[in-house]
Amino acid sequence: MNTVAQEFRALWGAAPAAGLDVMRLRWDFPILRQTVNGKPLVYLDNAATSQKPQSVIDCEAHYYATLNANIHRGVHTLSQLATDAYEAARGATQGLIHAARREEIVFVRGTTEAINLVATSYGQRLRAGDEILISAMEHHSNIVPWQMACERTGAILLVAPINDAGELLLDEFERLLGPRTRLVAVTHLSNALGTVNPVRCLIELAHARGIPVLVDGAQAVPHLKVDVQALDCDFYAFSGHKLYGPTGIGVLYGKAALLDAMPPYQGGGDMIREVTFSKTTYNELPFKFEAGTPNIAGVIGLGAAIDYVSAVGLEAIATHEHALLAYATGQAAQISGLRIIGTATEKASILSFVLDGVHPHDAGTILDLEGVAIRAGHHCAMPVMERFGVPATVRASFALYNTREEVDALFRAVRKAQEVFA
Ligand SMILES: Cc1ncc(COP(=O)(O)O)c(C=O)c1O
Fold first, then answer.
1. I want to staple 364 with a disulfide (CB 3.0 to 4.6 A). Which of 128, 215, 376, 380 is the partner?
2. 104 with 254: CB under 8 angstroms?
3. Per the database record, which ranges form the Aminotransferase class V domain (predicted)?
């Protein structure tokens, strides 16, 4: 057996953790069988995007090979079959997040577009002096659309602070909810720190004052079991590509009454009921918000990804990733000169850290030479970097297919980077 094959076995020969047969599941992801720079790929950049199982890849190919047609408009067989597959994926998405009604599921390009949709459409009711409350740990996608809405309307963006562990200060959050607060927009799971926010509690605090809440679930949906009815959130946004699904497809969940009252986000095909030159009437939900030919293959691929994670089981995935994060945190603590950024009590799937004397980008380059893919940078959360006084972090993020052996490979490579830059 050559060294690469031996290394593969060392990485893949993981004992099943907490009920998940990781070794078997890994074979569902063809990309994981690759080598990078002559080393077995250790893919720990899952918070940026996760890898796709064969079933998702096959599903998209199958759609183009056998079903491709535009949806909702054709009377011919292919169009009806494609429409059925597209709408079945909407049903699967409704089931995944336990939405009360299928028309509450709007397909968009991703979390970013979902938040922009709300900021633009719901944002039309903002007036000068109104307030939007976000947290200090938001991704740029949950900051910039609100800044743009504030620029358009004269509304004010308020930011609830976090402590040194990366946890939201609940008293401060509550204090910032005022008579002019029109919306709270907060992340469920921070992509830069790994903090899991107590969103149910935040929603209760906001609702007690009649304030609706948007939850950015880009990082949460792949790692936690999300129930939008139990949370009672008003909007919930997430992306397919972080959930083992295709890129370019995402979901906006919105309570039907709110979505119904909102003006369309974009104009064009599918979102209309009737068009004359003097007036256009709009389609019913969710089509009112799905203008133009959608990413049909992406939606159907997302449906396959949802089927995949549902079959594996989100609770089992969460348990496995939790064990990996705990193991990685323990390993990190043994490395001198390593400081973890984000030490909240409630964390999931993400380990961000900095190394004395080694810039995260340099560390990333050395890790890559060892076949270890992590993210080095500000993670589209520049204000978080500023809060912790670092220019960037190294971020390892875990998925259902990662193993303890891969965590060991990560820290072997980290030690190598420290040696190189000693
Ligand atoms: C917390 C969070 N919000 C929003 C986004 C934006 O997601 P997308 O680029 O898929 O629209 C990301 C992506 O990393 C994220 O981690």
1. 376
2. yes
3. 42-410
Furthest-apart CA pair in the chain: how many Å?
74
d(CA 296, CA 374): 31
Q: What is the token pair recorded at 186?
A: 């907060």
Q: 285: helix, coil or strand?
A: coil
At residue 403, what is the residue type? T
Third-level CATH fold of 56-311: Aspartate Aminotransferase; domain 2 (3.40.640)
CA of 139 to the centre of ligand 1 (A): 7
Which ligand 1 atom lies nearest to the CA of residue 189? 1
Q: What is residue 169's three-state secondary structure?
A: coil
Residue whose CB lies within 8 A of the most ligand 1 atoms, among 380, 393, 397, for a mutation test: 380
Q: Is the pLDDT of residue 96 over 60?
A: yes
Q: pLDDT tens digits, residue range 325-366?
A: 999 999 999 999 999 999 999 999 999 999 999 999 999 999
DSSP string, 345-401: SSB-SEEEEEETTB-HHHHHHHHHHTTEE-EEE-TT-HHHHHHHT-S-EEEEE--TT
Query: Are the C-beta atoms of 139 and 187 separated by less than 8 Å?
Result: yes
Distance of CA 408 to the CA centre of its chain: 26
Per-residue pLDDT band at 6 (split at 50, 70, 90): low
The pLDDT of residue 102 is above 70: yes
Best residue among 49, 108, 111 to mutate for probing ligand 1's pocket (most ligand atoms within 8 Å of CB) is 111
The enclosing H or E element of 89 equals helix 77-97
Q: Answer whether 281's CB lies under 8 Å from 100's CB.
A: no
User: What is the per-residue pLDDT across 131-175, written as a single tens digit (0 to 9) for each?
Assistant: 999 999 999 999 999 999 999 999 999 999 999 999 999 999 999
Alpha-carbon distance 246 to 54, whole Å? Answer: 12
What residue spans define the domains of the chain? 3-40+314-420, 56-311
Q: What is the pTM of this model?
A: 0.96
Active site residue 380: yes
> How do 235-239 and 250-254 pair as beta strands?
antiparallel
Place of tokens 């720190």: 193
CA distance 195 to 323: 16
